[in-house]
Amino acid sequence: MLGSRTGYVYPPAARFMKLDAQILRSILLSLETESALSGRFPSSATEHCLLLWEAGLIEQGPVTGTRGSGMMGWRSAKITPRGSCALNALREDANLSLVQQHADALGERATFSQLKAFLQQVAEWGDPSAAARSKEN
Q1: Is residue 109 a contact partner of residue 125, using CB atoms and an 8 Å limit?
Q2: What is the pLDDT of residues 28-38, one digit of tens each?
Q3: In the 8-state DSSP scheme, what is residue 108?
């Protein structure tokens, strides 16, 4: 695939990183919007974002917020190579031991099943067939 302006051919990993970054931004924006519309302070969204950050799946954006909320900068969060690998592993329904390692590293902050479920949700955003499969179950 050629770059839009430079003619540079992006290696496959770079293409996936760009796609994953777009997926991540969509999810974080959705979490922020859902929290705002529900009238609740986005504690669950913050928790999800912190889990991803602590697991090394995203880089923390600048701290933002109103009324001293101290929320992470959702829109500026960037996916890491480790995060992209985790998404790829889940997309391919491959080795989930990577996810287990992230959960172990987090200790009591989240159970393996909680983190696995959230990462699978993240992966489904980029894979319409996975979303269809989850609706069938």
Answers
A1: no
A2: 666 556 556 66
A3: G
Angle of helix 97-106 relative to helix 112-125, nearest 10 degrees, comes to 130
Residues 82, 59: Cα–Cα separation, whole Å: 11
Asked if residue 118 lies in contact with residue 51, where contact means CB atoms within 8 angstroms, the answer is yes
Write phi, then psi, for 58 (nearest 5 degrees).
-135, 160
Q: Three-state SS for 40?
A: coil
Ordered by start, the domain boundaries in the chain are: 12-128
Q: What is the rounded CA–CA span in Å between residue 45 and residue 30?
A: 9
Q: Average pLDDT, stretch 14-29?
A: 62
The 8-class DSSP code of residue 15 comes to: H
